[in-house]
Amino acid sequence: MFPDYEIDLVRQSLVKVLNKYKWQLSEEKIDSLVIHALVMLKRTRQNSPIIVKKEEVIPAQQSEEYRMTEAVFDHAQQVLRVTLPESEKVYFTWHLMSCNPSKLPQQDNDPAHQLMDKVLEQLTTQLQIMTMTNFRNDLILMEGLSVHLPSTLHRCRHGLSIRNPMLHEIKKMYPYMFSMVVMALEEVNQNYSIHIPEDEAAYLVLHFQASIERLQKKRETKKKVLIVCELGVGMSHLLQAKLEKSYKGMDITGCIGVRDLEETLNKERVDFILSTRELEVKDPPSLVISPLLKSEDRTKLDQFLQQSSEKAVFSDHLVQWLKRGTARFDVKPLHRYEVIEMLGNELAEKGLVNASFPKHAVVRERTSGTAIGGGVAIPHAPPEDVNESAVALAVLNEPVEWGSELVSVVFLLAISKQDQAKIRPLMHTISRLSTQPEAVQKIIEARSVQELEQVLR
Fold this sequence. Notes:
Rossmann fold, PTS-regulatory domain, PRD, alpha/beta, 4 domains, five-stranded mixed beta sheet, four-stranded parallel beta sheet, 19 helices
């Protein structure tokens, strides 16, 4: 979401200041601070700074962490020509304090702090149940939310809106987590008579998505990678050093020439090959990159790793649930709420959902638009309204306005409580489709579930 030069600039400034003040932080905490700093810069550029209470400014300004904050952003502001408002500096100061909980003010008797504790408890409990992920095992997440939520709740209680400059990107990149957070917040809003809008929800998505990736990284074993390089030992070792520095999840088994490839593959198993030239080998998969590992090579490699990890989460249930549900092709343009109601009523007529499902799906859509880019939308409703999991599809013969986007393909998801574990691969499948214009066009041209199934498979 951010340019490489900006990421490097912020990280270097932060690390320099941490070293000066002799702070030892884990890589995960440094990553978290870098992300918050980048978000702050983007918010400031778009003139949508965060809001903090006036009485909270002075205590923050008197802290060592505030002086560190000014030092971190001093160089970055000059280079990027951005002037951070005081509220953003205070906000980053809190995040630095969260890296040392003893520095945070004790507010146990403060009603606002008590509300934050209750919201934090319910939000993490709801998301643990919905995603089957033990978020409380991630101390970085809990500390980050403890800093983030008080100012969020303050804005919501006082009707202070904030625009998230990355809302569209977050929805598109993380549709599963975005949907889970929004659904969890619906109960939070109802229980505590507050309204946390989707702009605020998107910031929370980043916290929970980062947590899932951290927890997943702990469970994953390293990928075994073989380097094939014909440009000499020195160049091979340079490429290996660059890869090991940038990609911690790689176990590089060796650097070899093409002539040794067949013998090496017969002796040991590798997950994929990185080569400086085209190879005839199809299994394991290979990717051609420059030995200098330029920025375009990193982009190619990131996409390659993303695709290889996503293959395992393809949802075969999408086809099954479409056959069980309903599919309409060549539909004349309707308002998005009418599309949802039409599909929801058809599922209700089949007894797959209860009579409240269409209404609740529309209410959910009004809370936060479900377009995920690429002309695709994924409206849905709470699992309590679902008797048996199914998907309803509408393919429109002309795009319709869906919030701030145009949509031609609508998947109405009706997933029961017992099938919640299958939502994530289902969302991944649809999300991947939305990034492939040719696949979306083939769905638009399809006229039967059989033709659609061929596209999906």
